[in-house]
Amino acid sequence: MTRLLDKTDASAPATAPRTPASRTARRTALLHWIAVHSLGVAAALFFVLPFVFVVLTSLMSDQQALTRDLTPNTWEWDNYARVFRTDGFLVWWRNTLLYAGAGTVLTVVSSIPVAYALAKFRFRGRKLSLMLVISMMMLPPQVVIIPMYLFWAKQMDLSGTLWPLIIPMAFGDAFSIFLLRQFLLTIPNEYLDAAKVDGCGELRTLIKVVLPMAKPGIAAIALFQFFAAWNDYFGPQIYASENPAAWTLSYGLESFKGAHHTDWNLTMAATVLVMAPVIAVFFFAQKAFVEGVTLTGVKG
């Protein structure tokens, strides 16, 4: 029996004594965890609560929306149907989809070759070309709006349409070119050299090798352009304000707010319908978006 007890005591793990230093370390780690997560929760509430307020107000009745209530007494889902039945709202949706969709496709298609040339080609004037692209990023659109308007409205007679906003995107976007160029710099040149050894030309190398590896960067510039076009208010105000049939959601929402300035529930419902596509697109594409934006700062 004595031997058995001795064997049991010897095999039992030794418990490390709790020293004041270990207790202080655990307390510090706990306080650090609480501080970090508290700041994260506070930041999340800072961004989420306004959106929650807009959604809850959009579901209130006409009378309750004018009170200080924070939650609806009855959930008025018909408010969204009333917004869709408003004259012109579906037209604004169609115009916005045309503007954002066509503009995004044209920007991506036109920016990829320029970014590829600036990132992988060696030619005289390459640095000067890059500086010109960067300088265009620093040029506010308000500086060139008058000559641009005179050209599109007077010379091309396209005032009252969205074409003055869509057509220039076929010639590239400075920010998209710069961002994609930074991403293409992270692609090793060995892949391009191997493709050329196998007989690929520059165009085939771009399509078969570079584009599949540059999907995160392409997704990033596509999302940036889509969000910018979807939320654009200045451009439609300049070129399409005189023609209600060419209004977009961002500009039409201002008119909707003026017509329903006492119906806060309908105004909030229209706001939710304008924001919902952007939130949905970012939710499904956030992984590629974050990866593309992160990798653009690795090199260059």
What does this structure look like?
With 300 residues, the chain is mainly alpha-helical. The chain has a single domain (86-295), classed as MetI-like (MetI-like fold, Orthogonal Bundle). Helices cover 72% and strands 0% of the residues. The protein has 14 helices and no strands. It has helices spanning 2-11, 20-58, 78-84, 89-120, 126-137, 141-155, 163-166, 174-184, 189-197, 202-213, 215-230, 234-239, 249-259, 264-295. α3 (78-84) packs across α14, α4 runs antiparallel to α11 and α8 packs antiparallel against α11. Mean pLDDT is 83; it is low at 4-8 and 10-14.
Percent of sequence in beta strands? under 5%
Output the radius of gyration: 28 Å
* Content-based structural category: mainly alpha
What name goes with the CATH superfamily? MetI-like
Structural domains: how many? 1
Subcellular location: Cell membrane
GO cellular component, one term: plasma membrane
Main location: membrane
Protein name: Carbohydrate ABC transporter permease
Task: Give the topology.
Blueprint: H1 2-11, H2 20-58, H3 78-84, H4 89-120, H5 126-137, H6 141-155, H7 163-166, H8 174-184, H9 189-197, H10 202-213, H11 215-230, H12 234-239, H13 249-259, H14 264-295
Could you provide a short overview of the structure?
By secondary structure, the chain is an all-alpha fold.
Fill in the keyword field for this structure.
300 residues; mainly alpha; MetI-like fold; 14 helices; transmembrane helix; Carbohydrate ABC transporter permease; cell membrane
